[in-house]
Amino acid sequence: METVAVIFGSRSAEHDVSIVTALASIIKPLELTKKYRVEAVYIAKNGAWYWDDRLKDISLYSSGKIQDFLHKAQPASVQFDSGMTLVKASGLAGRKTVRKVDVAFPATHGTYGEDGALMGLLDMANVPYAGCDLQSSVVGMDKILAKLVVKSAGLKTVPDITFSHEQYERDGKKLIDEIEKKLGYPAFVKPPHLGSSIGVTKVSTRNELRNAIEVSLHYDANVLVEMAVPNLREATLPIMGFGEEVVPALLEEPLFRAEDFFDFDTKYLRGGKKGKGGGKGTKGAQGYSRIPADFLPPLYREAEAVAIAGFKAAGCSGIARVDILINEKTKDVYFNEINPLPGGLYAHNWNKAGISNVELVEKLIGYAKQRHAARNSLTTSFSTNYLQQF
Question: FRET partner for 227 with CA separation of 20 to 30 A, picked from 124, 156, 251, 326?
């Protein structure tokens, strides 16, 4: 029986979302397959790693007892020795429990995980892992870089202005003047390296813009300011695959009023209720949405094609979600961003597309093994006489 280590938590603003994704959408369906020994590997907010079956229980976190548990538990050691091995003290005469990992399944949203940090560590240790690889994770988790990459592939993106903390400190007034002149109001201010809409603010005045930039710089060293698309309709598409195999789910349309947007509160705490906007929808991970999106066939096909093109341009594999913005009046379709680790793996959408939670995680394990085999087929060392001269 293969051992799959599901890694979640981490030093990220999306720490809590990661816990739910891991427990509900990955560990549970993996255990239902009866094919894998599933190990819960939790990274606390201080960066310590823990390995224990009790970490699979959501009530440990929802009750607040997790802090007491961590205070009493012994952190695990992780050996990255041409593979991944979990080690922890058993409490019996210095004995240790050791488990060799066959496949890692990252569920670490945001920084120190989804941004490629964990993927780089796993690559160095030669461990197969589910989801996007290092390069596509870096691209996907940097909204500024992602837009540059897809623009080079010929996709439309919304006009934007980007700048660093240092630039804003030096030329703040000039940048705000430029934003007002080139983008106007309303506009969106975003920390480019965060997901779950954390730190994202819709602004309509100069004062709101200033405050939103300060909020964004609290989370990130850079800021992305984008023009608000008029006559807006949004869509999102989960996609999975490896190599030539690209499998889209169903185009999904969040339902909300024109003056609202899906911030963290709406997505995860209110179930999207403030944005349900009437009409029938599915209460999925991102609140009320329509699956499939109610677009005319030509617009549906174009939005799907843009999402798939964005997935390919970023070099994604495993699974990702691509967000699309549409001007309903002009029918312009814009690439918005890539999420290299969709919350809950967007299982509600895959279910509508005919793929169960169990099938989803099994497919992702399969893609992980394919990518690992392809990577290991490459030559990564080179023999030289260079050292003989010393």
Answer: 251
Q: Is the predicted pLDDT of residue 279 greater than 80, yes or no?
A: no
CB 99 within 8 A of CB 79: no
Q: Is the pLDDT of residue 273 over 70?
A: no
Q: What is the pLDDT of residue 219?
A: 87
| Cα(44)–Cα(385) distance, integer angstroms | 46
Record the tokens describing residue 19, joined without a space: 């816990």
The tens digit of pLDDT for each residue in 40-58 reads: 999 999 999 999 999 999 9
| Cβ–Cβ < 8 Å for 310, 155 | yes
Domains and CATH numbers, the chain: 2-129 (3.40.50.20), 143-155+231-252+291-367 (3.30.470.20), 160-227 (3.30.1490.20)
Give strand ranges (E) for the chain. Answer: 2-9, 36-43, 49-51, 77-79, 84-89, 96-101, 103-106, 160-164, 187-190, 201-203, 222-227, 232-242, 245-248, 253-254, 282-284, 287-290, 318-327, 332-339
Q: In this structure, are residues 247 and 327 in contact, taking their beta carbons and an 8 Å threshold? A: no
**DSSP of 173-234:** HHHHHHHHHHT-SSEEEE-TT--TTTT-EEE-SHHHHHHHHHHHHHH-SEEEEEEPPTTEEE
What's the rounded Cα separation, in Å, for the pair 303 and 56? Answer: 38
The predicted-structure confidence for 168-193, as pLDDT tens digits, reads as follows 999 999 999 999 999 999 999 999 98
Sign of CA dihedral 286, 290, 296, 300: positive
Q: Mean pLDDT across the stretch 203-218? A: 95
Q: Which of 215, 211, 252 is nearest to 343 (CA)?
A: 252
CA end-to-end span of the chain, whole Å?
49
* CA–CA distances in Å: residue 364 to residues 26, 128, 211, 240, 336: 10, 11, 41, 8, 24
pTM: 0.89
pLDDT of 284 > 80? The answer is: no
Mean per-residue pLDDT of the chain: 90
State mean pLDDT over 185-204.
Answer: 85
Distance CA(48)–CA(15), nearest Å, equals 13
State the Cα–Cα distance between residues 287 and 273, nearest whole angstrom: 7
